[in-house]
């Protein structure tokens, strides 16, 4: 991070940021006379918000000619990104999510199943630590176990098919949490399950056809579905806050099903000019933002 690299006539610097996929960066681009920036996927309510405020301060000092700002939260009819818009759950932070998970474990008499986002290895580690707090072991599928082992300082409690079987789990379900991916739903058939927790795992939301399949399968097998989400994307209010912190001349919304909603909010609440690019058009930065 913060090690400039040269790409043609441009100097590009990446800044450590915060998202539900650790390792994400915001980018600063310098062409020798002007500076541009790209927010990357970003949130302000995560465990590393200080990183975001740090690069926002740096971008402000650079007096950006243009800032590309993500707008995922403007994609949905709800105020914050949710998986099921027909039945929106209360968005959590990474910290409050683990507290809620511990409460669910304490109140569950049998097996708890989780479907987490495999790329969020910090949350994977958090789930296992919370399971230990509740006196349970977390059983992982091999792929998630490999991510946990490689990317964190934790070792998997148990790996399904290698160190433990479904029969072992079914014998003492109150002692375990089982991580289960969508491709292996059939493993849950006839298991004694108190609840199935969907925590930003795949399918990611109701815009994915597999999401309806997941809900239908769980309902058919009488397995209660619970959402426990912490978005990797800033709320609408936090995006406006971030835009004001950076204070660029021009903002281009990106990463949204409805960038026009973000553009309207930015136009009303910031001093920046807002540009909604059109497909197949090329833009000249001098025309977008002439030097004063």
Automatic annotation (TrEMBL):
Keywords: Hydrolase
Example GO molecular function: hydrolase activity
Keyword Hydrolase among record annotations: yes
One Pfam family per UniProt: RMMBL
Domain named Zn-dependent metallo-hydrolase RNA specificity: residues: 228-256
The protein's name in its UniProt record: Hydrolase
Originating organism: Lacticaseibacillus paracasei subsp. paracasei Lpp126
């Amino acid at each position: 991070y913060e090690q400039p690299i040269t790409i043609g006539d441009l100097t590009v610097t990446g800044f450590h940021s915060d998202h539900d996929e650790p390792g994400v960066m915001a980018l600063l681009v310098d062409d020798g006379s002007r500076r541009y920036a790209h927010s990357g996927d970003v949130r302000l309510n995560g465990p590393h918000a200080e990183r975001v405020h740090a690069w926002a301060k740096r971008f402000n000092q650079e007096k950006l000619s243009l800032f590309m700002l993500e707008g995922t939260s403007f994609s949905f009819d709800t105020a914050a990104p949710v998986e099921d818009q027909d039945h929106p759950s209360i968005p959590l932070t990474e910290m409050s999510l683990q507290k809620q998970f511990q409460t669910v474990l304490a109140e569950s008499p049998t097996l708890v199943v989780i479907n987490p986002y495999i790329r969020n290895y910090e949350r994977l580690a958090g789930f296992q630590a919370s399971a230990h707090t509740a006196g349970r072991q977390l059983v992982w599928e091999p792929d998630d176990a490999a991510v946990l082992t490689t990317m964190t300082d934790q070792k998997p409690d148990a790996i399904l098919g290698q160190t433990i079987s479904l029969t072992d789990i079914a014998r003492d379900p109150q002692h375990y949490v089982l991580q289960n991916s969508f491709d292996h739903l059939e493993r849950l058939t006839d298991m004694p399950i108190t609840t199935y927790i969907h925590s930003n795992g795949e399918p990611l939301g109701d815009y994915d056809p597999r999401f309806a399949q997941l809900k239908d399968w769980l309902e058919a097998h009488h397995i209660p579905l619970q959402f426990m989400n912490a978005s990797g994307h800033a709320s609408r209010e936090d995006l406006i806050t971030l835009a004001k912190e950076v204070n660029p001349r021009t903002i281009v919304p990106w990463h949204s099903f409805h960038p026009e909603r973000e553009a309207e909010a930015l136009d009303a609440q910031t001093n920046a000019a807002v540009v909604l690019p059109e497909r197949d058009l090329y833009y000249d930065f001098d025309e977008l933002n002439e030097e004063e």
